[in-house]
Amino acid sequence: METSNRELQAAEYLERHRIKELVSYLTSALLFFRPKPREYLISLLERLRIAKVTGVAFPFFMDNSNIVAMFEMMDSSGRGTISFVQYKEALKTLGLCTEDGDLKDDGHIITLDKFKEEVNKRMKEI
Q: What is the CATH number of domain 64-125?
């Protein structure tokens, strides 16, 4: 019983402070830029702290041109759409989706506009 309660408290703590999303974002940034890890993480966390304290938006490593390029790589046939599976995997790769239950397949195809909107929205949430 004690272990179950501690596990529940730990899960709630991680969710409340969005630790999984933060760690996923930090990992994605490391893999994207491949800097010296320790110094880069310290710098990134300090910039996140300053952004939170000042209310200034944090500059993310993905801009619209990167998002469009990623979408175009997945849309190899040039139809202007990607599948839900591709969409979900892209968000996971970017560290913007950590749980399978986080996204629900509504049966609709994903357009570039929908993809950009969702990536930008999730980056702002982090």
A: 1.10.238
